[in-house]
UniProtKB/TrEMBL annotation, chain A:
PROSITE patterns the record matches: ADH_SHORT (PS00061)
Pfam families, alphabetized: adh_short_C2
InterPro entries the UniProt entry points to: KR_dom, NAD(P)-bd_dom_sf, Sc_DH/Rdtase_CS, SDR_fam
Keywords from the UniProt entry: Oxidoreductase
Ranges of residues in domain Ketoreductase: 12-195
Family to which the UniProt record says this protein belongs: Belongs to the short-chain dehydrogenases/reductases (SDR) family.
Record-given protein name: 3-oxoacyl-ACP reductase
SMART domains: PKS_KR
UniProtKB/TrEMBL annotation, chain B:
InterPro entries in the cross-refs: ACP-like_sf
Organism: Marinomonas piezotolerans
SUPFAM superfamilies reported for this sequence: ACP-like
Protein name listed in UniProt: Acyl carrier protein
């Protein structure tokens, strides 16, 4: 875990998974600009260090689907926070892939991967993070749902199942953690122009854009701003909520 | 302060009980103050006081003052 500057004390520390690309990166940049101390996570140590250096954050690379690696990372994080007289204030779990396959072409390993990344990852991250947040009896957790959790989408049975689980998770989690001053919310993005969309043709992207009320794809910053709001004191009386941020998208 | 005194003080603060109640035989869920909600407050406070991170299995296992000491001992906290 590398430190990239010496002026971190008194800043709110927020762990962001998947912070080196797409929505996670946009959130890392947004929060850093608001003077949070961003703990930058992804699987790639080099990418974590590069992003951490660029925003004055701290790199903490680990794979969210590896329970042992996750546990060791939190022990490292605990030591870092202790040494710098900091507490963990926030968690934003943005890591995770999306697999699009027709239902009958989807192996059991695919749904297992989706559940590991999105559900088990969120569960364990929330468990370890909230334990750190309880020390100060305050904190905020944001998890990522998706427009497909509510609307469904052809070819995304596994992905939408995992994302729907997140919406159930935040409702129960908010009830358990509220008594410790910890809020739990989710954002359900529509189709966002991130590396997850690289496989889509320009024609398909345009078709999706035209399916929104606002006639455009979302940008990572559109989601990052809402996540930053949910993590902030401005959302201090919000918990157990999923905010749809999709430009009015209606999926077929 | 000895580690035992720190442990007693942490139990007192976290569970809002008297110091003389913090004996090895005190068990989880045998007094109203040590319920599941307070248990996690206690765990967080012990972790902070002794600078450890307990595993989920240890949190579940920590069902008495005596066992709390045994678990902390595994993390090199000497009583």
């Amino acid at each position: 875990m590398s430190q990239t500057n010496q002026t971190q004390q008194n800043r709110k520390a927020v762990l962001i998974t998947g912070a080196t690309s797409g929505i996670g990166l946009a959130l890392a940049q947004t929060l850093a600009a608001q003077d949070y101390l961003v703990i930058v996570n992804s699987r790639s140590e080099a990418s974590c260090k590069a992003v951490a250096e660029s925003i004055g954050g701290v790199a903490l690379p680990f794979d969210v689907t590896d329970e042992m690696a996750l546990k060791m990372a939190f022990k490292t994080l605990n030591s870092y926070l202790r040494d710098h007289h900091l507490n963990l204030y926030g968690l934003a779990h943005c890591a995770g892939s999306m697999i699009t396959q027709p239902f009958h072409f989807t192996n059991a390993s695919v749904i297992q991967q989706m559940l590991n990344e999105h559900v088990t990852g969120a569960f364990l991250l929330s468990q370890w993070s909230s334990k750190l947040m309880m020390r100060e009896q305050q904190g905020a957790i944001t998890l990522m749902s998706s427009v497909v959790a509510q609307q469904g989408s052809i070819g995304q049975v596994a992905y939408s199942s995992a994302k729907a689980a997140i919406e159930g998770m935040i409702k129960s989690l908010s009830k358990e953690l509220g008594q410790y001053g910890i809020r739990v919310n989710a954002v359900a993005p529509g189709v966002i122009d991130t590396p997850l969309l690289t496989e889509l043709s320009d024609e398909k992207r345009n078709e999706i854009a035209q399916s929104t009320v606002l006639k455009r794809l979302g940008q990572p910053e559109d989601i990052a701003k809402v996540l930053a709001f949910l993590l902030s004191d401005q959302a201090g009386f919000m918990t157990g909520q999923t905010l749809a941020v999709n430009g009015g998208l209606q999926l077929p | 302060m000895t580690n035992n005194e720190r442990l007693v003080a942490t139990f007192v603060t976290s569970l809002n009980i008297e110091a003389n109640q913090v004996v090895d035989e005190l068990e989880y869920n045998t007094i109203s103050q040590w319920d599941s909600v307070a248990h996690m407050v206690l765990v967080a406070a012990l972790e902070k006081e002794f600078d450890v991170m307990l595993d989920m299995d240890e949190i579940i296992e920590m069902s008495s003052v005596k066992i709390a000491k045994e678990i902390l001992a595994k993390h090199d906290v000497v009583f």
